[in-house]
Amino acid sequence: MSDQSNIKNIAVALDIGTTKVCAIAGYLNEYGKLEIVGVGTVKSEGVSRGVVSNIDKTVKAIREAVDIAERNAGCKFKLVHVGIAGQHIKSLHHHGLLVRHDSNTEISQQDIDKLIKDMYKLVLPPGDKILHVVPQEYTVDDEQEIFDPIGMSGVRLEANFHIITGQITASRNILRCVEKAGLEVADVTLEPIASASAVLSDEEKEAGVVLVDIGGGTTDITIFKDGIIRHTCVIPFGGNVITKDIREGCTVMGEQAEKLKLRFGSALADEIYDNRIITIPGFRGKEHKEISEKNLSRIIQARVEEIFDYVLWEIRRSGFENKLIAGMVLTGGGSLLKHIDLLAEYHTGLQARVGEPIEHLAHGYTTQLASPVYATAIGLLKYCIDTNLDDKKVYVEDIRELTQKIRETEIEKIETVNTPDIDEMEVMDTDGGGAQRVTPGIFKTIFKKTKEFFETGIDSDI
Prior knowledge:
Elements: E1 11-16, E2 20-28, E3 34-43, E4 47-48, E5 51-52, H1 55-73, E6 75-77, E7 79-84, E8 90-99, H2 109-119, E9 128-140, E10 143-146, E11 156-167, H3 168-180, E12 184-190, H4 191-199, H5 202-207, E13 209-214, E14 219-225, E15 228-235, H6 239-249, H7 254-264, E16 277-280, E17 289-292, H8 293-318, E18 328-331, H9 340-348, E19 352-354, H10 375-387, E20 396-398, H11 399-415, E21 426-427, E22 436-437, H12 441-455
Parallel strand pairs: 1-7, 7-12, 13-18, 18-19
Antiparallel strand pairs: 1-2, 2-3, 4-5, 6-20, 8-11, 9-10, 9-11, 13-14, 14-15, 16-17, 21-22
Helix pairs in contact: 1-3, 4-10, 6-7, 6-8, 8-9
């Protein structure tokens, strides 16, 4: 249950993924750490490869996840910060120029904002829109490699920009789903950027690192150097493709394939020494099926190596192949595969670790939240709070205040009802013996019980 004093500081984020929909609410405590007050996670059925494919199923999943999180948080959600991903996400680089008329004044934030605003006027392919504009480095009157030009003097202000684009229809479908679920969208953030804010340290971003977020339907890649996003892309397959390969390679049902992957799966077949035999129940009257653990790992390894082939190709395309001192960080549900960090090191030559989203969490977080599965959701919440510091949007309303008002209104109605005095109520004797006074106890009891009902404390489950 959220604290009354922090109710106005609570922010809400929504991660609409291929395998799950997660609603999360929290606030920043006095030490600058995230206090999570409510989490709701349900299975996602209306999303394919990071893009909404069924509006009704997605709306139902959003509503269920939000209901669970609201009960945990003890407040009603109004605004949510939503993540966007999918294979439609693209990135490009562009050069911007601003000629300042007054060389005596210093370069201000307004000049940089104008330069960034000009980038949104770029002509894009039909159906695309700009999601993020990330400044790389600036040039002031031929003085290059400047990361913060504010306060400098100069006439020509130039900058290189990393621009991330996505399809208008994909973002509209997400907005429509959230609105149909009874919520408003405060802002939309690219999910790879959100994941990076949850699992990467400032030192890693400065040194140079590639974040690989292996989700259910997509694998997101983000490259940082000098603390700046240098490259982003989305590979259109992830953990679900591995499950599909197991289903076809072992000729089992989809649910069985998923359980095999989670319980016995390994990304590196050479690490399997005992080679246990896994027995899977057959259909009615059919014999059990037996699969060796090593063969299962060979199927998984082949697909994971293909994912890392794409990752390596994107690293080379970015031009930062030999500049990633901090190596590779793996996150997302796919990073839970055993020995996947070892395979990443062998296949790419970069040092690798599995990133858990505990970098910004306050002490006392649950083991559930420490899983890489929640990297995107926690990252969206962190990004939402960081960007909401200036405009102070109100994301939630206190359900206890609303219930108190309803309760007071109902009590007032009961007390002001024009009822006859209970002690003076009489009933006619049908046998002709005259009127008899009724025992008032029953009416007093009803009135007392009704009043007590509305004066009792609110249910803790609300």
